């Protein structure tokens, strides 16, 4: 069963909202995540901007009132400022409460401050998920470079992975169209990539979507980034075919 995590700050416009999006992005398969504010306003545009810059989906993010969450069950309530820690105690029982104290980037209105807050939140949330893995006995995936590069050694598998990296989530129908290849062939290569720990899946309605595995290590992410940046035409034609689709399914990124 997924653990339920609530992030709380004062306005629910930046810190807790970014934390919600980050944990969903990093470990959405293990946690149900929400955020709220003791005095909520609305999402700050710069907070949404730095999330999107980092490839983190922002659809559905909105500011919420902490009092509206008091009847829900939470395993963890993580406060991101001293004011929220003082005010949410009674409301958030019997959840395990964790107090983090992050300066409010809204006070500066500077892109660099929001980006730094996002970076520091990502590091703290990474530690939180690691501790949770140890507590529950779940082990992170082990990525053997030989197995990884063997999986990437096929031209079609590499194209599939780079397309999914570019588009965030794709279903088999989209991939067969983009690659101009048969469904059995694409499905077989997707199974190989999933077995190698490079992809994971989720169902949305009638479609099963593939996306990069949330436990993919940083060294492998850098390999994919460098491959894309140094080979700008690698999947250029495939992306054009995707954009030309008139019956392309609509995917929810969150």
**End-to-end Cα distance:** 19 Å
Q: What is the CATH level 1 assignment of the largest domain?
A: Alpha Beta
Radius of gyration: 20 Å
- Name the strands of the widest sheet in spatial order: 2-1-3-4
Q: What is the name of the CATH topology of the largest domain? A: Rossmann fold
Major sheet details: 4 strands, parallel
Proper CATH architecture of the largest domain: 3-Layer(aba) Sandwich
Please identify the structural class as seen in this structure: alpha/beta
In sequence order, what are the helices and strands, one letter per element? EHEHEHEHHHEHHEEHH
Low-confidence segments, ≥5 residues, pLDDT <50?
none
- Summarize model confidence as the mean pLDDT: 88
- Strand proportion: 5-15%
- In the residues, how many domains can be counted? 2
Q: Looking at this structure, what is the CATH superfamily of the largest domain?
A: Response regulator
- How many beta-strand runs? 7
Protein name: Metalloregulator ArsR/SmtB family transcription factor
Pfam families: HTH_5, LMWPc
GO molecular function, one term: DNA-binding transcription factor activity
Keywords: Arsenical resistance
In words, what does this structure look like?
One of its GO terms (biological process) is response to arsenic-containing substance. Keywords: Arsenical resistance. Residues 137-231 form the HTH arsR-type domain. It comes from Marinobacter panjinensis. InterPro entries: ArsR-like_HTH, HTH_ArsR_DNA-bd_dom, Ptyr_pPase, Ptyr_pPase_sf, WH-like_DNA-bd_sf, WH_DNA-bd_sf. By secondary structure, the chain is an alpha/beta fold. The chain has two domains: 3-136, Rossmann fold (3-Layer(aba) Sandwich), CATH 3.40.50; 145-244, Winged helix-like DNA-binding domain superfamily/Winged helix DNA-binding domain (Arc Repressor Mutant, subunit A, Orthogonal Bundle). It is 46% helix and 14% strand. The protein is built from ten helices and seven strands. The protein has a four-stranded parallel beta sheet with strand order 2-1-3-4. Helix 6 crosses helix 8. The longest helix is centred in the middle third of the chain and has 26 residues, at 111-136. It is elongated and about 55 Å long. The two termini are 19 Å apart. 30% of the residues are buried.
């Amino acid at each position: 069963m997924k653990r339920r995590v609530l992030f709380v700050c004062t306005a629910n416009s930046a810190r807790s909202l970014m934390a919600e999006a980050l944990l969903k992005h990093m470990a959405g398969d293990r946690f149900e995540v929400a955020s709220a504010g003791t005095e909520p306003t609305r999402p700050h545009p710069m907070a949404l901007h730095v999330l999107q810059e980092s490839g983190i989906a922002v659809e559905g993010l909105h500011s919420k009132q902490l009092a509206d969450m008091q009847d829900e069950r939470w395993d963890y309530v993580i406060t991101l400022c001293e004011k929220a820690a003082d005010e949410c105690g009674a409301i958030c029982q019997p959840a395990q409460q964790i107090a983090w104290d992050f300066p409010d980037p809204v006070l500066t209105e500077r892109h660099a401050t929001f980006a730094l807050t996002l970076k520091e939140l990502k590091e703290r949330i990474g530690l939180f998920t690691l501790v949770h893995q140890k507590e529950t006995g779940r082990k992170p995936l082990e990525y053997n470079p030989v197995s990884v590069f063997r999986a990437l050694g096929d031209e079609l598998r590499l194209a599939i992975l780079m397309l999914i990296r570019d588009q965030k989530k794709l279903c088999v129908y989209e991939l067969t169209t983009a690659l101009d290849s048969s469904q059995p062939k694409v499905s077989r290569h997707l199974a190989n990539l999933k077995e190698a720990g490079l992809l994971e899946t989720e169902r949305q309605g009638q479609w099963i979507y593939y996306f990069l595995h949330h436990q993919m290590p940083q060294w492998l992410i850098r390999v994919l980034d460098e491959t894309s940046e140094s080979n700008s035409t690698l999947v250029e034609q495939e992306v054009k075919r995707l954009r030309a689709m008139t019956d392309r399914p609509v995917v929810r990124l969150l």
